[in-house]
Amino acid sequence: MTPDIHDIGGAPVIIGAGIAGLMTALHLAPQPVVLLSSTPLGTEAASTLAQGGLAASLGADDSPDLHFTDTLAAGDGLCDEAVARRMVEAIPHAIDHLIRLGVPLDRTLDGKLRLGLEAAHSRRRIVHAGGDATGRELFRVLVAVARRARSITIMEGMTALRLVVAGGGIVGVLARGRTGVVGLPTRRVVLATGGIGGLFSDTTNPLASFGHGLALAACAGAELADLEFVQFHPTALDTARRPMPLVSEAVRGEGAVLVDEHDHRFLADTPGAELAARDVVARAISDQLAAGHGVFLDARQCLGPKFAKRFPAIEAACRQAGIDPAVEPIPVRPAAHYHMGGVAVDAEGRSSVTGLWACGEVACTGLHGANRLASNSLAEAVATSAWVATSVAGTCAGWQWPRLPTMVPLRPDPSPIRQLVSDALGIIRNGKALSNAVETLLPIAVGGKAAADPALVALLMAIAALRREESRGSHYRSDFTGRDAVALPSRLTLCTGFESAFALSWQTSARSC
């Protein structure tokens, strides 16, 4: 539909047009909804890069109970069990919905869904589309359906700058488009902005994915949760290309092994070996690289000439880098990949701010805990989008034109802080580096320049990492290697975050005097 701001007052506004945003918009039909995308659809969505599939207990030897158990084990004590139970039971039905929409899921010769194996899964339960192009295929179908839906107003090239809050609730969205800054009046906003990988130098995410939704939510006063938990994918293709092409875990699921430059399989004696939890594999690779070794994923024996047919997108990326994975090992290194933390939401996706929901990676539902189980993320976005849409649809649509802020933020740019974030919030962390990061990030976060919002997100993440004085899941502290007996989720608001930052800066300054 052709967008006309004067015709959309009061309609729910979804910020972000990846899989979570598109699915939420489609579930809201036929209720009118506005979908904001800062770029042309598909050009900056992390969803399109997803090689892994959707985890679902569809095999004859599988069950939701087994999927639930694997999810809790990966989450290392911090999963919300009620959310995890609900999701593993809902995702098989959600996959049926995707099939009805026309998503071409991979099948065996006898017509059954092909199920792959990934790390920390006890059964083959990963559903793919296009081999290693699940995100792209899913996104392609959803975009086509959304463009045909008369109820969805798609506004491309429109960047949300701030959520306008009055009386403790959302009353509008301040956004910048091609013609300037506009205010969208609404009392219902869904954040579906993706993750934070763009804060890091090595990432599989689009470089613009800096935690935009977290900045919007924080400035609106929303509670954020578990920000310290960042999953680093162990096997990104080690080239100069950014974002880094992912070498899917499914390759290891087919039998590929990790070796150093001497063909030594350094994970052979680790429980689970190459299919151990991602944090274990990522730290092992990081240790090898720190010791001066190269790290390679060797698929020559398990796949060889079949590699191109099974993983066409990965094969193409390798070929572009001058590597033939059928006959030579693939150079890999860890890269920031997925954020388990996000906007704290309830079972229906509601945040602590009236009128604000979150869906997908930007939300912290409690499903992933301290470490996401592989391919649970797409599954979460597909399943929870229906719950969010139901909640939004059942909320009063009354609205008024909001009073807009006089200060308009600049378009965010995370590039000035990437190296700092990579050094302080990487795979292995320590209190000194985190404290220094907080002291450096605080003036940038309040400085009003283009790096302010990315610095705010990184600042809150660093404070959360400082507060967690243990090693759990993806959060590893070299100065607190032990694991606390009781697992406690972390919670932050902008107020508590800045209070912590100012206190820490004062203490640091006092020590230096």
Key terms:
Flavocytochrome C3, Chain A, domain 1, five-stranded parallel β-sheet, single chain, Methane Monooxygenase Hydroxylase, Chain G, domain 1, 3 domains, four-stranded mixed β-sheet, 513 residues, FAD/NAD(P)-binding domain, alpha/beta, 19 strands
Provide a brief overview of the structure.
The protein is of the alpha/beta class and 513 residues long. 34% of the residues lie in helices and 16% in strands.
Explained architecture:
The protein is α/β, with parallel strands linked by helices and 513 residues long. The chain folds into 3 domains: 5-194 and 340-393, 3-Layer(bba) Sandwich (FAD/NAD(P)-binding domain), CATH 3.50.50.60; 235-334, Flavocytochrome C3, Chain A, domain 1, CATH 3.90.700; 409-512, Up-down Bundle (Methane Monooxygenase Hydroxylase, Chain G, domain 1), CATH 1.20.58.100. Helix content is 34%, strand content 16%. It has helices spanning 19-28, 64-75, 81-101, 134-148, 212-219, 249-253, 278-290, 307-310, 312-320, 376-393, 418-424, 431-445, 452-467, 494-512, and strands spanning 13-15, 33-37, 54-55, 115-116, 126-127, 152-156, 159-166, 169-177, 180-185, 189-191, 224-225, 230-237, 257-259, 296-298, 330-339, 342-344, 356-358, 363-364, 491-492. A 5-stranded parallel sheet has the order 6-2-1-10-17, with helices on one face. Strands 18-16-11-19 form a 4-stranded mixed sheet. A hairpin with a 2-residue loop joins strand 8 and strand 9 (180-185). The radius of gyration is 22 Å and the shape is globular.
